[in-house]
Amino acid sequence: MKVITTINELQQELEKHRVLNKKIALVPTMGYLHEGHMTLAKAARQENDLVVMSDFVNPTQFGPNEDFESYPRDLDRDEKIATEVGVDYLFAPTVDEMYPDDGGIRIEAGPASKILCGATRPGHFNGVLQVVSKLFHIVQPTNAYFGQKDAQQLALIQLMVRDYNFPVTICSVPIVREEDGLAKSSRNVFLTDAEREQAPVIQQALQQAKADFLKHHDKEQAIQIAITMIENQTSGHVDYLELRSYPNLQEIHPETNQFLLATAVYFSNVRLIDNILFSNEEIR
Ligand code: AMP
Q1: Which of 17, 34, 37, 137 is catalytic?
Q2: Angle at 35 between CA 149 and CA 6, to 5 degrees
Q3: What is the whole-number distance in angstroms between the Cα of residue 250 and the centre of ligand 1?
Q4: Who lines ligand 1 at CB under 6 A?
Q5: How many domains would you assign to the chain?
Q6: What is the phi/psi pair of residue 242, to 5°?
Q7: pLDDT digits over 83-134, tens only?
């Protein structure tokens, strides 16, 4: 595996493969790799000739009071993990390499970026779409891999690719969890020991809400069950917990096929997200 820090070098390397018609995969990450990222890379490895993983904590998707500075970083460790899972190029640029000049042109992620995580993180998804579209142009992948862990991000990227004809196929993988059900996240290291013990309640609460919704078809009741469970059984505070259609993230209605039950929970030093995607075929 090669670690590359400049756009020029990466593009020169990839050109050698592109002329041979190789299928190139992109796996965008912010590093501090865990099994969630590894699952994406393994899927990319299986389905493509070449795997590029980006490892870049993107400043433009962090708000002024968010954790950009303290976000965990360990490139040496990432290199080992990426090598193990068969990544060919680990692209780890500096902020200056990615954003040397600023012409002020912005991507506006639209109404579906203002709800759920976007309600408390204004501008977050504009920054996500900015960096993802830059990476798409730099790497020009055949396939790009994203996790369902960040379901709203995945939905918005799918909408951008569809609406703006990006020549890339978006592939997604289900959420990878710890044994006790907590969704793997680079940010889990910020949980205190007590919070780490309580955190699996988030997933349990979503499961309870889903079961209740499938039985009674009462969205508000299902949501209230999950919020109460999280607030009673953890020291966390629910930012939002919502049931929406997927991938449009609209209010649900009787014809909704795909549901996204998603939450964000604040603990003392970290805000965690989790979700469940399910279809109306489960409704009996
Ligand atoms: P991040 O480094 O947190 O920006 O994540 C990079 C990619 O990995 C995104 O597409 C995430 O959705 C995905 N990802 C992060 N955690 C998980 C997980 N637990 N399971 C599946 N995918 C994940």
Answers
A1: 37
A2: 90
A3: 23
A4: 29-30, 36-37, 39-40, 146-147, 149-150, 173, 175-176, 183-186
A5: 2
A6: -140, 155
A7: 999 999 999 999 999 999 999 999 999 999 999 999 999 999 999 999 999 9
Domain that holds residue 35: 2-173
Q: Which atom of ligand 1 is nearest to the CA of 146?
A: 10
CATH of the domain at 92: 3.40.50.620
- The residue ranges of DSSP E strands in the chain, in sequence order, are 2-4, 24-29, 50-55, 89-91, 143-147, 169-173, 237-245, 258-266, 271-279
Same domain, 21 and 130: yes
- Measure the CA–CA gap between 175 and 197, rounded to whole angstroms: 19
Whole-number pLDDT of residue 284: 59
Q: Closest Cα to atom 11, ligand 1: which residue?
A: 147
Helix (H) or strand (E) holding 129: helix 124-139
Q: Pick the atom of ligand 1 nearest to 183's CA.
A: 19
Q: Which pLDDT tens digit goes with each residue over 190-237?
A: 999 999 999 999 999 999 999 999 999 999 999 999 999 999 999 999
Same domain for 190 and 262, yes or no, is yes
For 240, the 3-state DSSP assignment is: strand
Residue nearest to atom 6 of ligand 1 (CA): 29
Q: Is residue 168 domain-shared with residue 193, that is, in the same domain?
A: no
Q: What spacing in Å lies between the alpha carbon of 33 and ligand 1's midpoint?
A: 9
Q: Is 37 a catalytic residue?
A: yes
Number of C-beta neighbours around residue 265 at 10 A: 25
